[in-house]
Automatic annotation (TrEMBL):
Keyword 4Fe-4S annotated: no
Protein name: 3-oxoacyl-[acyl-carrier-protein] synthase 2
Residues covered by the Ketosynthase family 3 (KS3) domain: 2-424
Catalytic activity annotation: a fatty acyl-[ACP] + malonyl-[ACP] + H(+) = a 3-oxoacyl-[ACP] + holo-[ACP] + CO2; (9Z)-hexadecenoyl-[ACP] + malonyl-[ACP] + H(+) = 3-oxo-(11Z)-octadecenoyl-[ACP] + holo-[ACP] + CO2
GO CC, alphabetical: cytosol
Pathway(s) where this gene product acts: Lipid metabolism; fatty acid biosynthesis
CDD domains documented for this protein: KAS_I_II
Length: 426
């Protein structure tokens, strides 16, 4: 059917704000969400900083009893989904028809409502605690809910149970591309007619000893700026020394245009295109030629029926690692040609850190905010540009302008490349 797909709601839990409004204000202010790790004692680690979600109280959005049965990554997703569904006007109380008081229900057909979330790692804090109990006290002391708390699909499952969605409920796992690829899968579900509405995006909560230790051993994380954490994430800067682990969730409500218009919904943007490719090169490093990622950009633009020169803003994967940033610069140049030097490119990871699967959802929201609010998010900490990274990365301060088309790219371990394109809705 190839129906037009639009965005009607957004929700954000992030290191720089626990609502879309807070997230937007922080992007404009160039606010860093990076600080000392507080979620565990990191004193024995080379890496002692991360971009943690702050002042997060899950009971603002989730029943206290239910929240205790969710890992942190699931709580993030459910909270962001609650925000997004409220903005979209797709929830109402069950109390009006004699249902359970206070419980939400969908204001649309549940059988035509799906969920596609990206998650890379699952509930690692649960895995760690259960392993510790098993080793110190035996298997009978493990957490009874270890498995349903830890597995990646439980964020989608919990959202489905809370709101009563009965369409497909999928979880996409393509490492750091998971959130972006989840959005692409959701786009296809609506275009095909399988769903009218899809709750989609990404979520992650991997600031735990095992994850930080594992990425530290890969030499992937920044270790030189424990003393000045707000300056540690510095994409495209010659003095970068690795990424900063972040956490959070970005959730979008996607609908077919006719479904949104029929119910009088406010449409925020058109979700116009998606492209995905594989590098077939290396388990952790991107293809240094940039060819694989460039193909994903070209595929997304073609899918969106957008010419390269029509894109005003590109939200880069921009991890602040030695290998990613020059490779991604090549990728952008291959895909956009001379226009690469004319459009704005930035990495919001300079502020949020690398939220793994959560990044794809949050960065899609950044693109939509760029269109609807007319601003280019900055790349902060860009003080000494890498000569190999010679595009306009909106250094250090927000810039304002009219943006009609924005795109976002994500690259994942294993050679996964995903790109999404959003257009101003008229």
């Amino acid at each position: 059917m190839n129906r037009k797909v639009v965005v009607t709601g957004m929700g954000a839990i992030s290191p720089i704000g626990n609502s879309v409004a807070e997230f937007s204000a922080s992007l404009k202010a160039g606010k860093s969400g990076v600080g000392p790790i507080t979620l565990f004692d990191a004193s024995e680690f080379d890496v002692q900083i991360a971009a943690e979600v702050k002042n997060f109280d899950p009971t603002r959005w989730i029943d206290k009893k239910d929240a205790r049965k969710m890992a942190r990554f699931t709580q993030f997703a459910v909270a962001a989904a609650a925000q997004a569904l409220e903005q979209a006007g797709l929830v109402e109380s069950r109390s009006a028809d004699g249902g359970e008081e206070g419980k939400p229900r969908l204001a649309c057909n549940p059988e035509k409502t799906g969920i596609v979330l990206g998650n890379g790692i699952g509930g690692w804090e649960v895995v760690e605690e259960s392993f510790r109990k098993m080793i110190t006290s035996g298997p009978r002391r493990m957490l009874p809910l270890t498995v349903p708390l830890m597995i990646n699909n439980e964020a989608a499952g919990n959202i489905s149970m809370i709101y009563g969605t009965k369409g497909p409920a999928f979880t996409q796992v393509t490492a750091c591309a998971s959130g972006t690829d989840a959005l692409g899968q959701a786009l296809d579900l609506i275009r095909s007619g399988r769903c009218d509405v899809v709750i989609s995006g990404g979520t992650e909560a991997a600031i735990v000893p095992f994850a930080i230790g594992g990425f530290q051993m890969l030499k992937a994380l920044s270790t030189k700026r424990n003393h000045e954490p707000e300056k540690a994430s510095r994409p495209f800067d010659a003095d970068r020394d690795g990424f900063v682990m972040g956490e959070g969730a970005g959730i979008l409500i996607l609908e077919s245009e006719e479904h949104a218009k029929a119910r009088g919904a406010k449409i925020l943007a058109e979700f116009a295109g998606y492209g995905a490719t594989a590098d077939a090169y290396h388990i952790t490093a991107p293809d240094p030629s940039g060819e694989g990622g460039a193909r994903a950009i070209k595929a997304a633009l073609e899918d969106a029926e957008v010419k390269p020169e029509e894109v005003q803003y590109y939200n880069a994967h921009g991890t602040s690692t030695e290998i990613n940033d020059p490779t991604e610069t090549k990728m952008i140049k291959i895909a956009f040609g001379e226009h690469a030097y004319k459009m704005k490119v930035s990495s919001t990871k300079s502020m949020t850190g690398h939220c793994i699967a959560g990044g794809g959802g949050l960065e899609a929201i950044a693109c939509i905010l760029a269109i609807t609010e007319g601003f280019y998010p900055p790349t902060i900490n860009l003080e000494n540009p890498d000569p190999e990274c010679d595009l306009d990365y909106v250094p250090n301060q927000v810039q304002y302008g009219t943006i009609n088309v924005a795109a976002s790219g994500s690259l994942g371990f294993g050679g996964h490349n995903g790109v999404v394109v959003f257009k101003r809705y008229y």
